[in-house]
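Render this sequence as a predicted structure.
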Amino acid sequence: MTLHFHVQARMPHAPAFLAWLQSHLEAEGVLLHPSPQGLTLHMPQVGTLAFHSRHAEGFHCDIDAVDDRMAELIQLSLDEHAQEFLTDHGASASALQLEWHGLPTADLRYRFQVVQIIAVTDITPHMRRVRLAVPVMTALADDGLHVRLLLPPPNATVQWPQLNAQGRLQWAAGQTPLPQRIYTIRQYDTRAQWVDIDIVRHDHDAPGAQWLAQAKPGDHVGLLGPSGGHLPQAPHLLLVADMTALPAALRIAQQQGTRGSCWQLLALATHAGDTAYIPAAAHVQWHVGDIASQPAAVQHWLRAQAASAPADTQLWLAGGKALVQATKTALKTHPLATGIEHKLAVYWQ
């Protein structure tokens, strides 16, 4: 049942935020309809948001969510995007005020919890699995793909934030917020209360890479839920993913199998050793090569698959920004067969 609600926002540089949001979402493949009055975006299986820029210090947004859970995810996502914009533009996140109207009262108690690492395993030379003990599994959506982690420095005594009445993280005065990263839930066990997160290892000097390199059993991280993203529901799927997105693609493929639905996967890797991540199967094809070779390989595979794909097929593609943009451009110039919808997601810049 569709849920209608709206939000009145007060924040500095509101028109610039809408422009920033439009650019950000275009890269994610979200359907956008800009107009002189504002911006409307549509996300299948999530909902529709219509932004109206009223003045330089605020905007109004009318929202139609497909259900209560997606309404909660929209609320979290809009709050996080606005805070990210303000932080990136040198403004305080405390300048953001969101007044929600018509939104059901949510249980905020388990949106944030501190969880413990119970195992760290290298699946391939460049893929590491981190298993988390999660006391309250209800904080994670059953069909959600992603979860957000707060990453503390190694061996540090951490003062964890609290959630305020709006479900926003509240840090102690003068405390620097911990870096946050979004990762894919590879698999989970509700009864045993654990979640596996598969993460690509690299040598970048960044908080996520540093945390992953030193993560060990017994360490704690902050976990924010419910998870974002969702499992596509089409009867037939074409899946394309580089190593960063393969955990999500495999999660989707597993779900398709339990529903008796069909899928084909093109997996992209830059190192031959990483092909061990997926057992050999008739519906899995690997392309091993440098990043520059991936767009052409993807287009060749898509044309071959689309030639015999049923009309109720959906393409799900995720990876680097360059791959997503190249695929988006190619699909505009040479669309796939009639009826094939597509969802493109940027997993890294």
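Summary. The longest helix spans residues 68-88. The radius of gyration is 20 Å.
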